[in-house]
Amino acid sequence: MRRGGYILLTLIAIAVLAAVQSLAQASQAPSESATPQANAKTAAAVKNWTPARTPDGQPDLQGVWDTASLTPLERPKELGMKAFYTPEEAAAFEKSRKQENNRDRRDGGAQTDVARAYNEGWFDRGSKLGRNLRTSRVIDPPDGRFPPFTPEAQKHYDAVHAYLEANPANGPEDRPLFERCLVFSQTGPPLIPGNYNNLYQIVQTPGSVTIFSEMGHQARTVPLDEHAKLPQNVTQWMGDSYGHWDGNTLVIETTNVRYNDMSHFGTQYDTGMSDRNMKVVERFTRTAPDLLIYRATVTDPTVYTKPWTIEIPMDKTESAIFEYACHEGNYGIVGILAGERAREKKLAEHR
Amino acid sequence: MNKKFAMIFAGAALLVVAAPVWAHHSFAAEFDADRPVKLRGNITKMEWINPHAWIHIDVKDASGATASWMVECGSPNTLLRRGLTKASVASGQEIVVDGYQAKDGTNRANGRDVTLPDGRKLFLGTSDGEVGK
Hints:
The complex is a heterodimer.
Chain A: H1 2-26, H2 37-48, E1 63-66, H3 87-101, H4 109-115, E2 138-140, H5 151-166, E3 199-205, E4 208-213, E5 218-223, E6 240-246, E7 249-255, E8 279-288, E9 291-299, E10 308-317, H6 331-349
Antiparallel strand pairs in A: 1-3, 1-10, 2-10, 3-4, 4-5, 6-7, 7-8, 8-9, 9-10
Chain B: H1 3-18, H2 27-30, E1 31-47, E2 54-60, E3 66-72, H3 76-81, E4 94-102, E5 108-110, E6 113-115
Parallel strand pairs in B: 3-5
Antiparallel strand pairs in B: 1-2, 1-4, 2-3, 4-6
C-alpha cells in the first residue's frame, strides 16, 4: 500500500516534470563556464588569501566546520545542466525547500506522518543553500546526478532490494549501517551531510590529520605518509586513508573500504552503492578564514559507469562538537526487530 | 519568483513527498502507522541520549489506572546547540504526545508532536532553522 502510494506520487511527479521540462530548458545555464557572481567571489578570495601555518608548517585547517545546508545531493532532473542558482532563485528555492522539509507538517497520510518521526525542532539542515549557490552537491557528471550503475551492479542492487522488501529485519544485518550505529553518510568518505549533526572538527599534528565527525562520533586519523597503507585484503568501514599536500590543498586518498551486502547499500552514502574497488580522493582547501571547500571524487568501476564528484562548502563555526554515543541508547534497532517479530507472529496466526 | 520556477518547485515538492523520509533510523519500520496514539501524561524521566532522546511519561486512563510510556524524539545534540538541556524539561511536567505506537504493541511511541497542554510545542526550532551559528 505504502509502496503503491509512492509509485502513484512518483508518476504524478514525473508527469508534472515532463510538462515543465521545455520551460526548464529555457532557464538552464549552458555550462559551468557561465560562472556566477558567487564563484567569481570565491575565486577572488582564493587569490587574495592564504591560510596560516601550523607550527610544523602545514596549512592550518583546524577548527570546527559546519556542512549543513539546503543544497540537495543530486540536482532535480528538471534543472538539467543548470549548476548554479541566481541569488533570486536561491531565495525562492530556500523558501520552498524549508516548507517541503518541515517535519511539523501533518499532511500526506499516516505513512508519511510516521516517517516524519518528530518535531522540526530536532533537525538541523541549515536554512540556506551552500554559499556557492550550487543546485546540487554532485558537481560531476555535469547534470549533477550520480552516473548510472553498471548492468551487473544494477542487477545486484535490485536483487538486494527485492530480498529486503520481503525480509526487512530478519536480523540487525538486514538494517542499514547507520541504524546499526556503524557508519553514517556524514562519516564518509566521502563526507555527505544529513539531517542533523553535520559538524566536523579537524585536528592537525605533525605527520597526520584527524577528521572527526559529530554524527557517529567517528574520528578518521589520516597519516601523511603513503607507506602506512594497509594490505589490499584488509578492509575497514571508513577504508584506509593517507594524505598529502598539493600546495595549500589537503588531498586524501582512500581505498580498502569494507563492503557489506546486506545493509541495503553496502555503502556509506544514502541511496547509492559501493564495493571494495571504491577509491575516494578528497580535497580540502581553505579559501577564507571562515570557509573550507571540500571536494571528493569517487571512482568505483564495478558499480558506476563513470566517476562522480561532490562539492561541499564547510563553514567555520564557534559551536562545540557534542558526543554522539550511538550504541549507548540505540533502542530503535531493538524496536524495529521486535516489531518485525510481532508482524511475523501475526502472519503465522492468520495462516 | 518567476512562473517557470514556481512550476519547477511544485514538481520538486511532489518528488520529495514520494521519497522515503529518514531520521537516524526508519521510524516507519519501528512504529505502526495503523496505531495512532494521543497520550496525555506527566514526565517521569528524560533520557537525554543518542541516537535519540526518550521521554518517559505516566499516563492515567479513565479508570484511574496508570500506564508508563516511552516516547522517542530526535538527537539531543541539536537541542543542546539551541541552548536546551535535559534540565529544560521538568520532571512532573504534563505533556501531550501525538504519535504512533510501536509495531510490537508495547507502550512505546514516537513523539510525532510533543506539546504542552496549552498546545505550544515543547521542542521548537528557530524560525529561520539556524542552529548555533
